[in-house]
Design brief:
The complex is a heterodimer of chains A (393) and B (381). In chain A, 74% of the residues lie in helices and 2% in strands. With 393 residues, chain A is an all-alpha fold. Chain A has one domain (40-343). A two-stranded antiparallel ribbon of chain A has the order 1-4. Chain A has a two-stranded antiparallel ribbon with strand order 2-3. In chain A, strand 2 and strand 3 (191-192) form a beta hairpin. The radius of gyration of chain A is 25 Å and the shape is globular. Chain B contains 17 helices and ten strands. Chain B has helices spanning 44-52, 74-80, 97-105, 111-116, 121-133, 149-162, 179-192, 205-211, 229-234, 236-243, 251-264, 272-286, 290-303, 310-313, 320-334, 348-361, 365-380; strands at residues 4-15, 18-29, 33-37, 59-64, 67-68, 82-85, 167-171, 197-201, 214-219, 222-227. In chain B, helix 11 packs antiparallel against helix 12 (272-286), helix 12 (272-286) crosses helix 13 and helix 15 packs across helix 17. Chain B is elongated, with a radius of gyration of 26 Å. Classes of the chains: A mainly alpha (393), B alpha/beta (381). Chain A binds chain B through residues 220, 223-225, 227-228, 230-231, 233-235, 237-238, 240-245, 248-249, 252, 376-377, 379-380, and chain B through 52, 54, 73-75, 78-79, 83-84, 86, 90-95, 99, 102-104, 106, 109-111, 114-115, 119, 137-139, 141-142, 159, 163.
Chain lengths: 393, 381
């Protein structure tokens, strides 16, 4: 009887928590979608849109690093693949028979074969997600099948990043090499991409994408699948001897994470007006990791918060003191590693929350020997004793 | 004959020239509880690694229920029904106790089933039952990180059982536990042995004695000997492996020594006089010159272990002469000292043990009388 009651109480608490979370997400979504466009100047709104698209890639990194424990330093690949996908579609908004303006510069007269699918908008949308997903899946399969993990995995992803970077840099005749693809002056649905209406639309789509991808990650990380990811992070061999094949799980998560980065890349590209191979620079991919570390590994909201904080700080600081930013970023990383190993959200969860509550007078700071108040064994015994006493009465 | 759950033939594992396992043969019936002991480096853990597929054998085969396990991946072997507990407790520290068990309980272990299927209600009930079995109900929603060492060991055993394997491989389950926890784990294993086949690897001899029925001793990658606990303890080869020197006396002499020692222990107290009697008499029995006798006495002192069940030992003495020696020696031992001055030389417990021994020895009554008289005559002179 007692256990049943306890079970329903826990269930009810869970449902209430979920409800609160849902309301909070909806509220934040509404503020981002409706309120901010009305009060922020266009320039700031565009910045926010870019930062939010970066938050999407951070969510992907959190999935593979924070939950599954695999530090990928190569997410620039997937980010750029998504960006290139959309940019190619925009470049193809031309009258019949013409090819993008940079091709003639290199003596190319016929459109390279892989550009053709990008004439179609739906195919482009699918490709933005699918191409990075497949690339990540393949890379992941090769790496994970051979049980490469830890630092070797990080090095391999970084090496792959360099390979892609050099390849894209060198292929003028295929994708305009180091100059990249400029999307500002292109049109989509007959409207110029850099026009304010279009940019607002992109902003709204970005907010929506953040919400959808947050919910996707939330779904993935709750339930058994998410717990297996954590289990793989904590003790992969144990997982294997429990009858699960970690390779499949890791490949899937890495692929999903790649797809998410692709979406982020596409949204970032149209809001910054250009995509170049520099999106695949080593430093940028490491920066993505820093955002997640600052916000808090293994907490989805942390990835978003971390990204927004760090990127906004960069904008503000580099507006004021252009030289300082890199030092600041280095200091930030050191600070997080040494003082806040679980990031901001991790710190709030484990420590700051209680401190805040006690500061606000909501909960008395514990003065007794804490294990007596919180030890479940002691609590259970106490409950049992009370119920026995009740029965005796 | 019971069905064999595990058969291992000519198993050799070669790590760059070092043979961790060397031509090992082993087999085990379904439903058996087998303890494997052996000094450090005997290959015990490698033995488990090979069964679970972590290490591939260089030569030889491992068969589980008749199925050859070569080239089968670890997770498939686990799904066949072999569960393994590691030496140090390995649980998922960032998941709650309940979640740890739930992951092990899950029957559908491929990626998409895990992602899309709702956990069936039976799993929840199983987890609830397991929590009771391992005694962690109160801490079910605590992160495994916060459990004590012993609780983690129990949780890991619970996770093993959750997989409902037919064969449990348990590597040093009581390392670092208190005596009480050790006994708990022992009882847990004994309870599990009713419905599972279990292999336990252990160093702690007290614990082995608590749970062991059949014991296999590994040494330098091969099986040294097999048998019940008493047999193993008296085997000179096992003693050599553990104590590092060959005993100078044979198996029969060792048995006599043990019986005499257990007589001395009968009143719960082994007195110096009793030890002296055992050692001098025995050394005289086994060696001729005085020097050898001295050395022997020194060596034998190590073998005067604690109480042993004499019921298993006596039948191993086959000749009448050996039995007579034992009787004489035992009588001499019990009459050599008393716990307190006021007591008889042969106190009540000793008398009971002695009567018991006579029954086991199955010597004719006249012989017993004759031998006792001889001893009394000797002690008077």
């Amino acid at each position: 009887m007692i256990n049943l009651d306890k079970g329903t109480v826990i269930k009810r608490q869970k449902r209430r928590k979920l409800l609160i979370e849902g309301i909070a997400i909806a509220a934040i979504g509404l503020v981002l979608c409706l309120l901010l466009p009305a009060i922020l100047p266009a320039f700031r709104l565009k910045l926010l849109g870019r930062f939010l698209s970066l938050a999407i890639v951070a969510l992907g990194i959190d999935l593979i690093w924070g939950y599954t424990g695999l530090l990928s330093l190569g997410h620039g690949i997937f980010f750029a693949l998504g960006g290139y996908g959309l940019a190619m579609h925009l470049k193809l908004q031309l009258p019949e028979g013409q090819i993008p303006d940079f091709f003639p510069l290199y003596g190319v007269e016929k459109l390279p074969f892989f550009w053709y699918p990008f004439y179609s908008f739906p195919v482009t949308l699918i490709a933005i997600v699918l191409v990075p997903t497949i690339v990540a899946g393949l890379l992941g399969y090769l790496v994970f099948r051979n049980r490469i993990k830890g630092v070797y995995f990080s090095i391999l992803t970084q090496a792959a990043l360099l390979v892609f970077f050099n390849f894209f840099n060198g292929q003028q005749k295929l994708i305009n090499g180091t100059n990249g693809l400029k999307t500002d002056t292109d049109t989509l649905f007959g409207m110029v991409v850099s026009s304010s209406g279009m940019q607002l639309a992109f902003y709204e789509v970005t907010v929506l994408s953040v919400l959808i991808i947050y919910l996707l990650c939330r779904w993935l990380t709750s339930g058994r699948f998410g717990r297996i990811l954590i289990a793989i992070r904590d003790d992969e061999n144990r997982v294997r001897f429990s009858g699960y094949d970690p390779t499949g799980f890791k490949v899937l998560v890495f692929a999903i994470s790649g797809g998410i980065a692709g979406v982020a890349g596409a949204l970032y590209t149209v809001q910054s007006g250009i995509i170049t191979p520099s999106f695949m620079e080593v430093a940028f991919s490491i920066e993505m990791v820093i955002w997640v570390a600052v916000g808090g590994r293994g907490t989805l909201i942390g990835a978003i918060i971390g990204t927004l904080l760090v990127t906004f700080a960069r904008t503000l600081l580099s507006e004021q003191f252009p030289e300082v930013w890199l030092f600041f970023q280095g200091a930030l990383f050191l600070l997080v590693v040494t003082v806040l190993p679980n990031g901001i959200v991790g710190w709030v969860k484990s420590w700051g929350w209680e401190k805040l509550r006690s500061l606000l007078g909501l909960e008395e700071p514990m003065v007794t020997y804490p294990s007596l108040e919180k030890d479940p064994l002691v609590q259970q015994e106490r409950e049992e004793l009370e119920s026995v006493q009740d029965n005796q009465r | 004959m019971a069905e064999k759950i595990l058969e291992i033939d000519n198993l050799t594992v070669n790590f760059d020239g070092f043979k961790a396992l060397n031509n090992l043969n082993f087999s085990m019936d379904a439903g058996e509880l087998r303890v494997i002991i052996g000094p450090n480096g005997a290959g015990k853990t490698t033995f488990l690694d090979v069964i679970t597929g972590k290490v591939q054998p260089t030569e030889g085969t491992v068969r589980f229920k008749g199925k050859n396990l070569r080239k089968i991946a670890e997770h498939h072997i686990s799904r066949l029904g072999i569960g393994r507990k590691f030496q140090t407790p390995r649980v998922y520290l960032n998941l709650s106790v309940r979640e740890n068990l739930d992951l092990a309980c899950n029957r559908q272990k491929n990626v998409f089933a895990t992602l899309f299927q709702r956990p069936p209600a039976t799993d929840k009930r199983n987890v609830f039952g397991l929590l009771e079995t391992v005694g962690l109900t109160a801490k079910a929603d605590l992160k495994a990180d916060l459990l004590s060492h012993g609780e983690k060991q129990r949780l890991e055993i619970g996770m093993l059982v959750a997989q409902s394997p037919e064969l449990l491989l348990v590597d040093e389950p009581v390392a670092g536990l208190t005596d009480e926890e050790t006994e708990n784990v022992g009882n847990l294993l004994l309870a599990l042995a009713e419905s599972h086949s279990i292999i336990v690897i252990e160093h702690d001899m007290e614990f082995v004695r608590q749970i062991a029925r059949q014991v296999t001793v590994l040494h330098q990658g091969s099986v040294l000997c097999e048998g019940n606990m008493d047999r193993i303890q008296n085997d000179p080869r096992v003693i050599e492996v553990y104590l590092g020197q060959v005993p100078s006396i044979g198996e029969k002499e060792m048995i006599m020594l043990r019986i005499a020692a257990s007589m001395a222990w009968a009143d719960g107290n082994i007195a110096t006089e009793e030890i002296d009697v055992v050692l001098t008499r025995l050394s005289r029995q086994f060696a001729d010159d005085e020097q050898q006798q001295k050395e022997l006495q020194h060596e034998l002192r190590d073998y005067l272990g604690s109480k042993v069940a004499i019921a298993d030992l006596v039948p191993q003495l086959e000749t009448v002469a050996e039995r007579e020696i034992v009787l004489k020696l035992s009588y001499e031992v019990i009459s050599s000292s008393a716990r307190t001055a006021s007591e008889d030389l042969i106190n009540e417990e000793e008398a009971i043990a002695y009567v018991n021994l006579i029954k086991l020895l199955e010597l004719p009554a006249e012989t017993v009388k004759r031998l006792e008289a001889e001893v009394q005559a000797m002690s008077k002179s």
